[in-house]
C-alpha cells in the first residue's frame, strides 16, 4: 500500500508558463510556483512557440528549486516527479518532460506523465473533494470539453469543440477589436459595461449533441466588424464584447447543464483558463443554484496553467503505480 | 573526476562517462530518431556499463550549440536538471568545438560546420598546433559561400568537418580546391567523450544561467525588432 500522504513534485510547461509545485496526497498544496511569459508574448499578439521554449529552459531549474524551497522539502522527501506530457506545444512540453526525467533519474524516483486536461480537472481537488459521478467542463485557449468521470483517473469525453476552443474565439475576437493579448480578460471586462445588441448566433449543433462550435460565431463577429468599418459606422466595443460573450456563455452553460442532468451527476467542475471569466462563473452559479448538483470552480490562481494541478492529477496515478519509463516523450496531441 | 557528457545538438546523439578522467563508456547513435525518447535510456545504459550511479558524478558536460533548437534543448535540459539536482558543476561547450576536437592531433586549421538551411551554415574556425586547439573565429551563422570566400585568405589546408551531410562538398571544392580537406567516415561524428575532456579544463556555468547558444534569433523576434526600429 502506497503512502496516502505522498509528496509529488510536479512540472508544467505545456504553453507559456514555466511551473513547478509540491503537492501532498493529491489534495494539499505545499507550493505552487508559476513563471509566466505573458508579457513576453504580448508584443507578438500571441504565444510564439520557439520563444516559449527558449524561456522554459532558462526558468526550469529556478522554478523547481523555488517549489522545493517554498514547500520546505528536499528531493529526498519527494516520492515521485510528475510532468505534463501533453497536449500542448511540443517544444515547450519537451523542456518539462526532459527535466522531469533527469530529476527523477538523478534521485532514483519514479516519473508520472500527466494529461494537461486531467490536471485542470484535478485543480479542484486541491480545494474540495470529488463526488462521483461528476461532470467537468474544461474551457481554455486550447480546449472546450465536457468530461464525465465515474471514479478517479477515469475520463470519458462526451463533448468537445469541433473547431475553435472557446478561449481561442475570445482571443481572435479581441484581436479583431484591437484589444491587447490575451483577449479573454479584456472582453470580460468590457462586457460588464455593454448590452447584447448585436444578436450574434448561438451554435447548439444537432439535437442531443454535447459538442461545441465557436468558429461560426467568431466569423460572424469579425464579418460584422468589417461591415461596420466599411460603412464607416460606429462600433460599440462594449456591446460587441457583451454580445459575443453572451453567445459563448449561453451555449457553454446550456450544454453543461443538459449534460449534468442527463448523466445525473453529483458534482459539476468548471476548469481551465476561461473558468476565470466572471460572467461564466456567475451564470453557472445561477443555473445550478436550484439543483442537487454541487458546483465547483477553482480559485483564479488554479484556473490558469499551473503545476499544482498536475501534481494533484498525478497522485491518482501514483497510487496505481502508473509510472512512465525513461523513454517518456512529449506528446503534443495526447488523447485522454 | 567522473564526468557525464551529453550531446544532442544535431541528428547524432552521443553520451559518455569518464571515470577517473578516463573514458569508461560512450554511446553514439547516428539515426533519425527522437532524442527525447533515446537520451535517458542511453544515459542509463552507460552508467550501467561504467558501473557508476548519478551520485558518483563530479561534473557534467553538455554541448551548448549551435545546432537544432529542439535537439539542443533536450540535451541541455537534461544536463542542466541533473547538475542542479545533484548539485554538480556543469560546463557548456560549443558543439562546433566538440566536433573540431576530433582532429586534435592534426596540425592545421579546422572548420566544423552544420547545415543551417537556405545555403547557410553554423560554423567557426579553430587551429590545432601540437595537440592544442585554439579558436581563431567565434561560432557564427553565415552563408556558406561567403564564409568559404573568407577562408580563401588562409594559405594552409583547412580541414572541413561536419556531421550533418555532404551537400556542401562541391561548393567547398569549387571555392577552395586543393586547400580543402573534407573529413570523411566516422571521424565527422560528434563524440561526447571529447566534450568531457574539454570540460575538464573549463570553468563551469552557474546552473540556473545555463542556456543553449542558438546563434540565431527567433524569426518573430527579428521581425518585431525590424518593425520597431523603423519607427
TrEMBL record, chain A:
Function: Required for the formation of a threonylcarbamoyl group on adenosine at position 37 (t(6)A37) in tRNAs that read codons beginning with adenine. Is involved in the transfer of the threonylcarbamoyl moiety of threonylcarbamoyl-AMP (TC-AMP) to the N6 group of A37, together with TsaE and TsaB. TsaD likely plays a direct catalytic role in this reaction.
Binding site for substrate: 138-142, 171, 184, 188, 277
Enzyme Commission number(s) of this protein: 2.3.1.234
Superkingdom of this protein's organism: Bacteria
Cofactor binding notes: Binds 1 Fe(2+) ion per subunit.
Reaction equation(s) it catalyzes: L-threonylcarbamoyladenylate + adenosine(37) in tRNA = N(6)-L-threonylcarbamoyladenosine(37) in tRNA + AMP + H(+)
UniProt entry tagged with the keyword Transferase: yes
Species classification: Bacteria, Bacillati, Bacillota, Bacilli, Bacillales
Name of the protein in its database record: tRNA N6-adenosine threonylcarbamoyltransferase
Primary enzyme class: transferase
Subcellular location: Cytoplasm
Cofactor(s) the protein requires to work: Fe(2+)
Species assigned in the record: Alkalibacillus filiformis
From TrEMBL, chain B:
InterPro entries tied to this protein: ATPase_NBD, Gcp-like_dom, T6A_TsaB
Domain of life: Bacteria
SUPFAM superfamilies per UniProt: Actin-like ATPase domain
Domain Gcp-like residue range list: 31-224
Family matches, as Pfam families: TsaD
Entry protein name: tRNA threonylcarbamoyladenosine biosynthesis protein TsaB
Organism the protein comes from: Alkalibacillus filiformis
Amino acid at each position: 500500500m502506497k503512502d496516502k500522504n505522498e509528496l509529488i513534485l510536479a512540472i508544467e510547461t505545456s504553453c507559456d508558463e514555466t511551473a513547478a509545485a509540491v503537492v501532498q496526497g493529491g489534495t494539499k498544496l505545499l507550493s505552487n510556483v508559476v513563471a509566466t511569459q505573458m508579457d513576453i508574448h504580448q508584443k507578438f499578439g500571441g504565444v510564439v512557440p520557439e520563444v516559449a521554449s527558449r524561456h522554459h529552459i532558462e526558468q526550469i531549474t529556478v522554478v523547481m528549486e523555488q517549489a522545493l524551497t517554498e514547500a520546505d522539502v528536499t528531493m529526498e522527501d519527494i516520492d515521485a516527479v510528475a510532468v505534463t506530457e501533453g497536449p500542448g506545444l511540443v517544444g515547450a512540453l519537451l523542456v518539462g518532460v526532459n527535466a522531469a526525467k533527469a530529476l527523477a533519474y538523478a534521485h532514483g524516483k519514479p516519473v508520472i506523465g500527466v494529461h494537461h486536461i486531467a490536471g485542470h480537472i484535478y485543480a479542484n481537488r486541491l480545494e474540495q473533494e470529488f463526488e462521483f459521478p461528476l461532470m467537468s467542463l474544461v474551457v481554455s485557449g486550447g480546449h472546450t470539453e465536457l468530461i464525465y468521470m465515474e471514479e478517479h483517473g477515469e475520463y470519458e469525453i462526451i463533448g468537445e469543440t469541433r473547431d475553435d476552443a472557446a478561449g481561442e474565439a475570445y482571443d481572435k475576437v479581441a484581436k479583431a477589436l484591437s484589444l491587447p493579448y490575451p483577449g479573454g480578460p479584456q472582453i470580460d471586462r468590457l462586457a460588464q459595461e455593454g448590452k447584447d445588441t448585436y444578436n450574434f448566433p448561438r451554435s447548439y449543433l444537432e439535437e442531443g449533441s454535447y459538442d461545441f462550435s465557436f468558429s461560426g460565431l467568431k466569423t460572424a463577429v469579425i464579418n460584422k466588424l468589417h461591415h461596420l468599418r466599411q460603412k464607416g459606422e460606429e462600433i460599440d466595443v462594449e456591446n460587441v464584447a457583451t454580445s459575443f460573450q453572451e453567445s459563448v456563455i449561453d451555449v457553454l452553460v446550456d450544454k453543461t447543464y443538459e449534460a449534468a442532468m442527463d448523466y445525473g451527476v453529483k458534482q459539476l467542475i468548471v476548469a481551465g483558463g476561461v473558468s476565470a471569466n466572471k460572467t461564466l462563473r456567475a451564470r453557472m452559479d445561477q443555473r445550478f443554484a436550484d439543483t442537487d448538483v454541487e458546483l465547483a470552480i477553482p480559485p483564479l490562481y488554479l484556473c490558469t496553467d499551473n503545476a499544482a494541478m498536475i501534481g494533484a492529477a498525478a497522485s491518482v496515478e501514483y497510487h496505481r503505480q502508473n509510472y512512465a519509463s525513461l523513454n517518456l516523450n512529449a506528446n503534443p496531441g495526447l488523447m485522454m | 573526476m567522473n564526468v557525464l557528457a551529453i550531446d544532442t545538438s544535431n541528428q547524432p546523439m552521443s553520451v559518455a562517462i569518464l571515470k577517473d578522467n578516463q573514458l569508461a563508456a560512450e554511446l553514439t547513435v547516428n539515426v533519425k530518431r527522437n532524442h527525447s525518447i533515446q537520451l535517458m535510456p542511453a544515459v542509463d545504459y552507460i552508467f550501467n556499463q561504467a558501473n557508476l550511479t548519478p551520485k558518483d558524478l563530479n561534473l557534467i558536460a553538455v554541448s551548448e550549440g549551435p545546432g537544432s533548437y529542439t535537439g539542443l534543448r533536450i540535451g541541455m535540459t537534461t544536463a542542466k536538471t541533473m547538475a542542479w539536482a545533484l548539485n554538480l558543476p556543469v560546463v557548456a561547450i560549443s558543439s562546433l568545438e566538440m566536433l573540431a576536437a576530433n582532429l586534435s592531433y592534426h596540425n592545421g586549421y579546422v572548420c566544423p560546420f552544420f547545415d543551417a538551411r537556405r545555403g547557410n551554415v553554423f560554423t567557426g574556425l579553430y587551429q590545432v598546433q601540437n595537440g592544442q586547439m585554439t579558436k581563431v573565429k567565434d561560432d557564427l551563422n553565415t552563408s556558406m559561400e561567403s564564409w568559404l570566400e573568407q577562408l580563401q585568405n588562409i594559405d594552409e589546408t583547412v580541414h572541413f568537418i561536419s556531421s550533418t551531410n555532404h551537400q556542401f562538398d562541391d561548393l567547398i571544392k569549387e571555392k577552395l580546391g586543393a586547400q580543402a580537406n573534407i573529413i570523411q567516415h566516422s571521424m565527422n561524428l560528434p563524440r561526447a567523450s571529447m566534450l568531457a575532456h574539454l570540460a575538464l579544463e573549463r570553468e563551469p556555468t552557474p546552473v540556473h544561467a545555463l542556456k543553449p547558444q542558438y546563434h540565431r534569433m527567433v524569426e518573430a523576434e527579428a521581425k518585431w525588432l525590424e518593425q520597431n526600429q523603423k519607427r
